Structures are given as C-alpha cells and as structure tokens.
Amino acid sequence: MAGDLQFSWELSGSGWVTYRIADGASEHATHIGYCTDALADLLYAMTGLYGDSSGERFSFDREPMETRWLLRRQEADVTIDVFEFPDGGTSWGSPDETGGTLLWSSTQPRSVLCHAVKEAAEAVLREHGEDGYQEKWMLHPFPVAALQDLRRLHRRDDDCRHEQCRTDPEDR
C-alpha cells in the first residue's frame, strides 16, 4: 500500500547493520556487513531517482551473499525489487538483474521512499554522530554529503506532506 512505507537502518554491532523495509502488505529485513559503503550507496541511489535515469541499482555485501536493490522509476512512482544472490563473489556487478531470488517488491511514490530513507539516515546520525558511526561501521565515514544531497533534492522536488520538509531551510 503506497504511503505506508517504513524503513529503518540500525547499526547492530561493529561493522554490521540491520535494515528493515515494510509497506503495510509485506516486509523485508536483513543484516549487511561493512565491506561496502552501504549507507552511502543507498543514499546516492535515492538521489539518482531525481535525475534523468529511469532507475538505480546498488548492492549490499552479506558475506558471502549479495542483496541487490533495483529501483525503477515510473513517473512519480518507484518500483523497488530486492534480490538475493547466494554468492556475491560471482554475482557482484553482473548484468543479470534478476538472476537472484526475489525477496521483496513494492511500488511507492518517490517522495515517500526518499523521505523514509532520509529519516532513517538522519536517525542514525542523531544516535551515533559522525564519530560514533565511523567507530561502529569502521571502514567508511558517515555519508554526510549524500544525506545533504538527498535532503536538498527531496525538499526541492517532492511535495512532501511532512512539516519538517516544508519548513526547514537546511540544505535548500
């Protein structure tokens, strides 16, 4: 159901995060490791939805598995397909978009998806700060620039129903 989207991103230990995405009809949650700059990849994929591209793709390393998100934009909506590949060593970067097992799928307004991801990243920053994030995630700093880009694009291009997005002058 569009508009009921929930997304969370929680550091669950040194070098591990648990994310959860749910749309009112189904949900998907998994743990991913720090071998990639996962939060930055997620945020930059969201910012890519504001450009000319019809879609974005990014992957999370789950040692040894790969979880790959495919985002296909269709006017104001985004179809989200999350696939799992059993061996990231062979699937990582492969052109086979759907060769994995479909774990979760939903279609959401871009404004709803990007707002949910933005809020989750902001919650991580509030809870841990940049230094605390770096200490827990280890290989990569908190992606401040990616979050700022998403905030700016979301406020500029989406008619977000949340008061904070309509009135907060930060990053405009």
Rg of Cα set = 15 Å
Oligomeric category: single chain
Order of strands, main sheet, comes to 4-5-6-7
Number of helices: 5
Percent in helix: 25-40%
Unreliable stretches (pLDDT < 50, length at least 5) are: none
Q: Beta-strand percentage?
A: 25-35%
**Averaging pLDDT over every residue, what do you get?**
87
Q: What is the helix/strand order?
A: EEEHEEEHEHHH
Separation, N- and C-terminal Cα atoms: 30 Å
Q: Which class of secondary structure composition applies to the elements? A: alpha+beta
Question: For the report, how would you describe the main beta sheet?
Answer: 4 strands, antiparallel
Shape: globular
**How many β-strand runs?**
7
Structural description of this entry:
Strand 1 and strand 2 form a beta hairpin. The model has no long low-confidence stretch (mean pLDDT 87). Helix 1 (38-48) packs antiparallel against helix 3. The chain has helices spanning 38-48, 88-91, 110-137, 144-157, 163-167; strands at 6-13, 16-22, 27-33, 55-62, 65-74, 77-85, 101-109. The protein has 5 helices and 7 strands. It has 172 residues and is α+β, with helices and mostly antiparallel strands. A 4-stranded antiparallel β-sheet has the order 4-5-6-7. It has a 3-stranded antiparallel β-sheet with strand order 1-2-3.
Fold topology:
Elements: E1 6-13, E2 16-22, E3 27-33, H1 38-48, E4 55-62, E5 65-74, E6 77-85, H2 88-91, E7 101-109, H3 110-137, H4 144-157, H5 163-167
Antiparallel strand pairs: 1-2, 2-3, 4-5, 5-6, 6-7
